[in-house]
Amino acid sequence: MNTWTFKSAKGARWHSGALLYALTAYSAGWWLLFEGGGLGFVPGTLLLGHGMIIAAYFIHECAHNTVFTTNKHNGQLAAVLGWFCGSCYGTFKDIRTKHLRHHVENDDVMWFDYEGFFRRHPWVYKATRILEWFYIPAHDILMHTIMVFTAFIIPQRRNQLTRNVTVICIRASLLAVVTYINPLALLGYILAYMIMIIVLRFVDGLEHDYPYNTNLFGGPISEHKGDLVWEQAHTFSPILSWRYEWVNWLILNFGYHNAHHAKPTAPWYDLPRLHRELIGEDPETVIRLWPQLLMYHRYRTYRIFHDAPGIQSVSGPAFLKAAQSAQLTGGNAASFLTAF
Ligand SMILES: [Zn+2]
Ligand SMILES: [Zn+2]
Questions:
Q1: Is the C or the N end of the chain the one with fewer CB within 10 Å?
Q2: What is Dmax (Cα atoms) for the chain?
Q3: Nearest ligand, CA of residue 61?
């Protein structure tokens, strides 16, 4: 079959609704930035940013093949969406491989040892922390910069150099055109991109208590590979709202991470129901929004080494309790978009 075919009738409704929303928000965002004048700047930036957020989460759906009947078609959609959320410098195949290893090996499989990097470059670390104090997501700007220059920086991706250079040239030209027509629209785009990064890492930062392992291109595999009980005990669900399920649609239900890890092939719209079925009806099974916001605000400069004064290192059920009482730093770098 060569046409994109949704996996189910329900999927056709929910997925196409979300996709339509993402593309509309993205287009309306650009339109407001170009044509909306001063009044259009804030709504334009927010819509553009949110369109990019949904596109990014949709790439995660494609990585799990929840949208279309074949892997190939899910991959094609993800490759298109990569142009919307800016993850198209490398290949979707690399995103999918790294992310599926995260699920199977119960590990954050990495190439970039960012802790080592910051230890070796104390001035970069200091500058990063200062920017983070101002709520500028400097740690992830570094990660996304590596993503942009992926084939130049990662030796194992050198074979993607032609593709990488082509994408950089196309995107840089488009941004140059935007700047020429309306520099304020470029500022809106930069802010929208920051919003996307902040939202993605805000949600990602509390989903697991695993440390990372630099075994993306070889090295010892996690001892917890395939251990489903361990996986659930070290996975958490930072959601936006327990009472109003629809609020979680704003992040394509990505916070329901226990349900997602229990059944990675379940599409985003089934996750709230699955959480209640598999994990429980008790709101104590999730991390609610208020403590998440408190932690992000209080410990924003400690999310690299998790070394905030007075914060203890905990895991498993103690991690969940600590998160619910806002006693954790959360992390920055575990994003499915940055596949290294
Ligand atoms: Zn996960
Ligand atoms: Zn996943």
A1: N
A2: 58
A3: 2
